[in-house]
Amino acid sequence: SQPKLSLRSSRTSRGFRDVVLDPECVMRRLRCGSQESLLSAGCVSSLELTMDQSVIIKPVHSSLLGQDYCFEVTTSTGTKCFSCRSAAERDKWMENLRRAVHPNKDNSRRLENVLTVWVIEAKDLPAKKRYFCELCLDDSLYARTSCKLRTDNVFWGERFDFSSLPSVSSVTLHLYKDTDRKRKKDKSSYVGLVNIPVATVTGRQLVEKWYSVSTPSTSRGKSSVPTVRVKARYQSIVILPMEQYKEFAEYISSNYLLLCSTLEASISLRAKEELAAALVHILHSTGKAKDFLTDLMMSEVDRCRDNDQLIFRENTLATKSIEEYLKLIGQKYLQDALGEFIKALYESDENCEVDPSRCSTSDLLEHQANLRMCCELAFCKILDSYRVFPRELKEVFASWRQECGNRGRPDISERLISASLFLRFLCPAVMSPSLFDLMQEYPDERTARTLTLIAKVIQNLANFSKFGTKEEYMLFMNDFVERQWSSMQRFLQEISNPDGLNHTAGFDGYIDLGRELSSLHTLLTELDQSCLLKLGPLPRILRDVSSALSNPGGVSTVGGVSVSSPEPQRLQGSPAPSSSYSEPNENEAAFEMTNGGRREGPELTNESRSLSLVDLQDSSPSDGLDDGQWHRRTGLLPLSFQNPVYHMTSTSPRQPQQQADATPSDGSAGSQGNADDRNAVATKPAFLTQMSVGLGGGERGDRMSAMSSSSSGEEYSRRALSLTDTLTGESR
């Protein structure tokens, strides 16, 4: 799909150099319109950005280049691609560059186009062949699936998330057969395409459907046409200037507990997931996430006082919120802790099946030894991960421990921490790595079974329980589980210890607060409005935001005051979110905005200056700060690039192979792409050669997975066991 670009040479023969950049200096250069390079002179001569719509800054999916965490900048002079050390670093650079091009972003009405595509499976394809898909948006290549062998069907089960898209009219999947270049008969690799008009998948819900594949020519006598099962959703989210969300953001920051308790019993599970995700992102941006999660969890403790075993066993707003927060804050931790282990397991050929009904008796002892070794490695990685445990999660867990002690329930704090981290995060990630962005590819059957068995053992360890007669074939692991209980207790103590918080890294990614507030507004307006009547001024606040949305460029009402789209104003600081505000309505004026009696921060009035995303996030450099102060305030460190991945002077979009092209050229990514990966079908290396036993192995440091949060396991319900049934059903 990049015919004039050799992907292999672009990765290996350009002589990359690490260049350490000061992000503030870079931003100053960009803001001043300087043509000074982001990179060293030996890599790219200049990066010229102009403040207009012609500059496109977007991530590049790892499946296209075989390299993670890349982004692409397209200007009138061409396209340049840069590789970062982590997804958070990439996202922050992209946002800073976008703000250099559009400095008034937060004070402008904007449109955010977002697409989610699940390429699930295909059927009625010739057997004994391997297949992959290329995903194109309006004929521009955006991603590629892994190459999978057809058994009953061809199963990919891969999710792709795209944001900040230009306007898109169609999604096209090009289906290819992997070819053996040494065989003359395998000349044709193109199978056909599926074209999905964006209008048919536009909305708030995912649309799942089997689509027929349009093929270049249909052989006579064929009884069936290949079909592909795809689940997709396209959204164009209108985001108002941040000033018009000010009152809404204040209400959410001060009344999250009342909001959750009021809606808990009346909304669906899907609505709970969406509400929890929006609240977590918003409240983390406004500095209230720890209070939110502590208040919510303590309300769960109080509710389940006489039935402790129900905590974290139900799908409540509390459990969904901690799940979302773990995904948001813990993604880099997850990659650092288990990324190398999971990757090595995918590449190994160890058989860990220990159920006698599934393997021969002669192999059982060997398989038991394999499983024991894998569990020891996994637990060693987890134990050693306290070194990189996120500061924000440590603060939350320490707060839980303190509040449980204040309630005279210190015994339950360990259960809360263990259940949230293991039952809701680490063990699901081990069992389904692709759902947690540890791997793009869904595991093969043997690897999936090994991961499930490892997750069972680790979960029993975290529950401080042994295997019982329900799964007798796992009884041999009880010795390992009992021996490691003390280590597990020390680990849980360490990650909830308030001492030493300053020595651990915190979250350094980017949250689009405007988008989150817009999504939450949409969700709340779709609910039965009778549910909101107990929430004081919230219905009126929602109506004000709806009014602003229906008046693009016009005058709208916020808090009873007429406001127009604000002009850019110089930011003077970052006040804390207010806990109260003056109301024009007498009935609303008596409504006190508090969370469990907590009142914090100065009041923001309607006369305050324009509120922007960086105000609430406390991450904007001020003219009065020197470099050192700015770095301490934002948490930004100098970033390191490996550049350039590629530099194309032509701005023409990358074209997929056309359906009429039965014999792709050698330069085509459709037939080459990740050819080395697809042709490597040989026997996997032994697992012991992939991993080194010990606590010090696997210093990934700067590697992390894509930030896009994966959805729940419903996508693979036909292939993956229910985690609750699988991991917690053992006899105690």
What are the main properties of this structure?
GTPase Activation - p120GAP, domain 1, 732 residues, globular, disordered N terminus, 5-stranded antiparallel beta sheet, 16% strand, Immunoglobulin-like, alpha+beta, disordered C terminus
State the gist of this model.
This is DAB2 interacting protein. The protein contains 22 helices and 16 strands.
Q: How many individual β-strands?
A: 16
**CATH fold description of the domain at 242-515:** GTPase Activation - p120GAP, domain 1
- The name of the CATH architecture of the domain at 242-515 is Orthogonal Bundle
Instruction: Pick out the low-confidence regions.
Output: 1-45, 555-594, 597-683, 687-732
Distance between the termini: 55 Å
Q: Find the structural class using helix and strand composition.
A: alpha+beta
Instruction: Give helix % range.
Output: 25-40%
The fraction of residues in strands falls at: 15-25%
Let me know the largest β-sheet: 5 strands, antiparallel
Radius of gyration: 27 Å
| Overall spatial form | globular
CATH class of the domain at 242-515: Mainly Alpha
Structural summary, described in words:
Pfam families: C2, DAB2P_C, PH_RASGAP, RasGAP. Residues 271-463 form the Ras-GAP domain. It comes from Acanthochromis polyacanthus. Residues 93-211 form the C2 domain. By secondary structure, the protein is an alpha+beta fold. Among the domains are: 48-108; 109-239, Immunoglobulin-like (Sandwich), CATH 2.60.40; 242-515, GTPase Activation - p120GAP, domain 1, CATH 1.10.506. It has 22 helices and 16 strands. It has helices spanning 7-12, 23-31, 62-65, 87-101, 246-263, 269-285, 289-303, 317-347, 364-384, 391-406, 410-431, 445-463, 478-483, 485-494, 513-526, 538-549, 586-589, 613-617, 627-634, 675-679, 687-690, 723-728; strands spanning 17-21, 56-60, 70-75, 78-83, 110-123, 130-137, 140-144, 148-149, 154-165, 170-177, 190-197, 207-212, 227-239, 556-558, 561-563, 639-648. The strands form 4 sheets. It has a 5-stranded antiparallel sheet with strand order 1-16-4-3-2. Strands 6, 7, 8, 10 and 11 form a 5-stranded antiparallel sheet that branches. The radius of gyration is 27 Å and the shape is globular. The N and C termini lie far apart (55 Å).
